[in-house]
Amino acid sequence: MVPAVAVTAALTIGCGKKGPPLAPIVHIPTAVDHIAARRIGNDVYITLTVPAENIDKTKPADVGRVEVYGYTGTSQPPRGRFLDVATTVATVPILPPVTEGPPPTPKSGEGVQGSMLTVRDRLTPEALVARPVPPPVAPPGSKRVTTKPAAPPAAEEGVVRRFYAAIAFSPRGRPGPPGMFTELPLIPLPDPPLGVTATMAADSISLTWETSGGIIGFLLERHLAIESSPIDEPAPAEKVARTAVPVPEGPTLYNVYREVEPLPDAPAQPVDEQSFAMPINGAPLTVTAFSEPLPLLDGRKRCYTVRSVRGTGAAAVEGEPSTPTCVTPTDDFPPAAPVGLSASSEAGAISLSWEPNTEADLAGYVVLRGEAGDATLTPLTGAVIADARFVDQSVRSGVRYIYAVIAIDTHLPSPNVSGESARIEETAR
User: 270, 277, 320, 330: which is closest to 300 by C-alpha?
Assistant: First the structure.
């Protein structure tokens, strides 16, 4: 007889069967939680942060690409319909994370999880025109009957704006949730400054330019009231409020940009179409002049442009660049003539001293000497001396000598030479 326990175990084993296979776990990246737009001329640079985790809080994020979308209208479309009316601005592949070693280095047009990336949207004439949001399309199988074709949606009145949003996609193409929106008004750009000129000094380059918009811009900066015609009918206030273009308040400001010629033996740098230059001035300028320190006159051409700015912060609008003005800084500036030259006579020698020069490229000094009645002095030292003092031991007792000092810099192939210091006379003992 088979024990009951054994029969039970056998039945238990025999009744077991496999269930359906479990579906693989699908990770979806989180929404893009930071996005901002900056307009420079007719280019808009959209900066965003690539998600670093999935919506279930697992890491790393299962993200293969990020797509950026743009839409022009007078109001933000419903979140659920944004992709129906928006166009794709850019698609950026995201590098997969590495488990060991340093993080991957993205090339131009690539991104890394958790880092910021920037894409550019070139504003074409079409992108500057507001597009109305069409009515929702009836789902397939709907019984709604349309007796006549629907009229095209009327264009809305109001300030035209450009809206942007970004969505992260998994490597299998599954989209994450839509993230934040950013927007900017498409108001007219301020005129570029005219008459930009550059003046070079020994240690700086100074720029000046005319007010943006010329004399008209100069007058508008002073908020002169515009008289209305006595025969024109005023427009309804409500309609003006809906259609007027909002010019940012405040005066026109200016940003200065610089491009420096690369060194002759420097490797060629890849052109990053998505990056944008930063102005060399710390904050927008309220004046039409700027001076840049120039610690090294290396002979590389420098080209400068100036852009007009209206508004501040996120509402700032920056215009197209001025015509470039270029200079090639070369060291054609001699040191200052030494000052404070003095002499003292002692037995068989005359000691000289003077105040040291402060030029960064100073090589040293040459002492000049002549005898009383000589109009021209000749070099006394055979080489450049570094110290601001010298002892002349080649004197003859009773002879009256004339001294001067000149300063020399390190410019090659021919150094720059200062003028003579003030001459002094001393009689040898």
Answer: 330
